[in-house]
Specification:
It contains eleven helices and no strands. The longest helix is centred in the N-terminal third of the chain and has 31 residues, at about 5-35. It is mainly alpha-helical and about 230 residues long. Belongs to the AzlC family.
């Protein structure tokens, strides 16, 4: 592993890591209010490692949802990682299976966004850079969630502090940064077509599907439109 590239990726991940501190603390507090222990939230962060899925898990645990419901919900929420991982394989071509599993296992919306931002400036991104990007965020998230869970026992109602909105706020910030990057190399008309296809699809699909499924299918449609109009 190239240590210089690893630390370069780690530095690129620092803004994400800082964001993970606040979101992770919020996730831990919400988990504690749902009756989950620091050990349980820590293990969830290690093996599931998905903020939106962990927030959903805490809510479902509080509602005493069945194991089947928990499994299906987490699967659907994390299904978007399949799309991100498929795109990442086009950036890191010819890498070993071990390297691919290492990158894909720790890939998140945020580290994917950092990767896309880096790709705007250079095309020769190494796997060592990506490992640095992923690992710093991963370790920060685990520590923040565990600490948040320990603190959470002293906060009876996390929604009164707006902590339930923390993840939404972070996704809005990620979308804004990725859109800024896209505007540098993709025509505004194409971006409008992609976003329009997602919006229109979602509005129609909510008539026949649940909101979560409508979001998933509309995202897939938007990705399909993006591939079809890509000239590269």
């Amino acid at each position: 592993m190239d240590r210089q590239e690893f630390f370069r990726g780690a530095r690129a991940s620092l803004p994400t890591a800082v964001g993970y501190v606040s979101i992770g603390l919020a996730c831990g507090v919400v988990g504690a209010s749902s009756g989950l222990t620091a050990w349980e939230m820590g293990l969830m962060s290690i093996f599931i490692y998905a903020g939106s899925a962990q927030f959903a898990f805490a809510a479902l645990a509080l509602a005493n949802a069945s194991l089947v419901s928990l499994t299906i919900t987490i699967f659907l929420i994390n299904l978007r990682h399949l799309l991100m991982s498929l795109h990442v394989t086009t950036i890191f071509k010819g890498i070993s299976l071990k390297q691919g599993i290492g990158i894909g296992s720790l890939l998140t919306d945020e580290s994917y966004g950092v990767l896309l931002s880096e790709q705007v400036h250079r095309k020769d991104i190494s796997t060592s850079w990506m490992h640095g990007n992923n690992i710093i965020a991963y370790v920060t998230w685990i520590l923040a969630v565990v600490l948040g869970t320990l603190i959470g026992s002293y906060i009876p109602d996390p929604t009164s502090l707006g902590l339930d909105f923390a993840l939404v706020a972070m996704f809005v910030s990620i979308f804004e940064s990725q859109l800024t990057g896209m505007l540098r190399w993709l025509a505004g008309q194409k971006i409008a077509m992609i976003l329009g296809s997602v919006t229109i699809s979602y509005l129609f699909l909510t008539v026949v599907l649940s909101e979560s499924m409508a979001v998933l299918v509309a995202t897939l449609i938007g990705c399909t439109v993006g591939v079809m109009i890509d000239d590269n």
